[in-house]
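Look over both lines:
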Amino acid sequence: MAYILVVDDEERMRHLLSIMLTRKGHRVEQAGDGMEALELIESTPFDMVITDIKMPHLDGVGLLKKVLEMDIPCPVVFITAFATVESAVEAMRLGAADYITKPFEDSRILMTVERTLNVSRIMAENRDLKRELEDAVGGKQIVYESREMSEVIDLATRVAQSDSAVLIIGESGTGKELLARFIHNASRRKEKRFVPVNCGAISPNLVESELFGHEKGAFTGAVKTTTGKFGYAASGTIFLDEIGDLPVDAQAKLLRALQEKKIQRVGGNEEIPVDVRVICATHQDLRGLVEKGEFREDLFFRINVFPIQPPPLRERPQDVLPLAKHFLSCLGGNPNVQLTHGAIRVLVEYDWPGNVRELANVMERGMILAGGEAISAHTLSFLQKETASSKRDTHFSIPSGGISLEKVEENLVRQALETSGNNQTAAAKLLGLTRAKFRVLLRRVYRET
């Protein structure tokens, strides 16, 4: 099944093509001119576009040029009268996939659609290969030597062969998204999309629209129909990060989508089938949230089919050195930059509250401070100070002259953020706070400063 956009200013022609393609199992959207089509293409991942050339506002050739300018990977097929065949041929020189002349036969249309969809699949494969290459060059592969991570990778490899739901549980910075990508790339869905969604970053009022899409006019500001993340991830994998932050009312909608394997856009009545592999991740204790009534028990059991828990970096010190060397190579600095024995000792002894993400930040900072020389224990003295301060007695006595509580809070917040590499979840943990309480403190501190 493909997702096809039909563009024509004649409603009868749009309706005819839509019926023909729908009968073949394709999903079809319609647009009355090039401008309306362009809005849909910008927000929706169509597999191909079938468009007339002669249209008001923005004609077919203009639409093709816009699609090419925006580098949108969507092949375009033209339908044209005999009188404008020359224009269609010129459009193919510009990058159109094919053209069909009016009047046309159904078989001709369907044959052209199948041929163009093959082109679309090749384009998608090229995008995936490019993305995998960028991931490899950009340092997104999983680097490890420890037995603990070897066991995690073994579990991930096993579950990748199925479509079972996976729940990745771990501290912030342990590489939960990397692990989810590994599962996707080792699965039969690897040629389809991997769509990450940070549930904690979505406005509570827009969660349902973000996940499942909405119809045009469904609410104020809904000026066009959108597909949503589930639709965008069709036949691929959707990664729901920080699933514990999902509002309770949205949890009910998600549960239904997982159970029925169907979604319903906001403002729409049609139930749209979705074939998506779901991987969730959290740093929170979901069982504890269930007991508090903050997370649905039935949803927890639905997503917790195969739990995987990557260990924090402090529990796998064997991985610190290979990861550090890997990050140095990815930073693209002087290849002669080395880690001295003293630097290695500092790295291995450090507690890594920010985990692998913090290590990456530390290596970048260390390379800058080293200025092309070897990274030594002195270069990483900022870590030694943090390690020493963390081991001090936390008992505090108020001096006779008193203190400024606001200044103490500001200092603690800044230290926690610096130590955790600006990771708010890790910083909150350093101060013994929940992330929500830490954010309140953070807003107050920066408002007062």
Remarks:
- The radius of gyration is 27 Å.
- The chain has four domains: 3-129, 149-308, 314-382, 405-448.
- The first helix runs from residue 11 to 23.
